[in-house]
Design a protein that fits this description.
about 20% strand; 4-stranded mixed beta sheet; about 210 residues; Rossmann fold; 10 strands; alpha/beta; binds iron/sulfur cluster
């Protein structure tokens, strides 16, 4: 498959995903490149005073924390280096009622569901209820056919890679294989499936035509 055909196929898949998410009342948009994300979220940042970030390699790689800070926003990023445990806890709590919350997704199905697994729950909670507006940014690599495929992707790809990147003491961070562990640092304690837009939360879902995150 040459580059053009691959890009065409991925764009078709992403468009199907956007159409189904839109039917499920998410404000879903396809962006061809990650360079388009900042322009898209700037009006949302303009309208927000407080901005929370769920742990997300995708969002971090796009520099949205820096953009929010450069606009003078109060940012709740518990992954900021140098924070004490108490400070990270306080930031996770502030995320629950900030004006604007950014996260990615572990998987988005072509059938229009957003699936995330969390170890603590600040991300899965905040994306369901609390913040005034939630923005989900996801590369095309997060797209799967349906919810069972989403759960499989999380177990086989997203969680082991996330565990490895965080350096947590879990079996998958060593072997790359999920053993449905009971490790104290298990990062898969909560599964949240957004079947439709949560009633009282505005949600923008940006599907980007690039590989982003795990
Ligand atoms: S359940 Fe445990 S082993 Fe499986 S992916 Fe999650 S942290 Fe890793």
């Amino acid at each position: 498959m040459n580059g053009n055909e691959k890009n065409w196929l991925l764009a078709q898949r992403a468009q199907r995903c956007v159409e189904r998410l839109s039917k499920h009342r998410f404000n879903a948009v396809y962006l061809a490149t990650s360079r388009d994300v900042a322009e898209r979220v700037t009006p949302l940042l303009d309208a927000a005073a407080t901005v929370g970030f769920g742990g997300s390699d995708t969002v971090h790689s796009l520099g949205l924390h820096t953009l929010a800070e450069s606009m003078g926003k109060t940012v709740y990023d518990h992954n900021r280096p140098g924070l004490s445990f108490e400070e990270t806890l306080a930031f996770r709590r502030e995320q629950q009622h900030c004006d604007l919350f950014f996260t990615s997704a572990n998987a988005i199905s072509e059938t229009g569901e957003i699936v995330n697994v969390d170890g603590i729950g600040n991300r899965t909670n905040a994306m369901s209820f609390g913040p005034g507006h939630v923005v989900v940014v996801a590369g095309y690599n997060k797209i799967v056919s349906d919810v069972p495929a989403a759960l499989r992707r999380i177990r086989e790809v997203a969680a082991p890679m996330r565990a490895k990147s965080l350096g947590v003491d879990t079996p998958c961070a060593v072997t790359g294989v999920c053993s449905d562990c009971n490790a104290p640092m298990r990062i898969c304690n909560i599964t949240a499936i957004l079947h439709r837009k949560p009633m009282l939360t505005d949600m923008t879902v940006l599907i980007v035509g690039e590989e982003l995150g795990y």
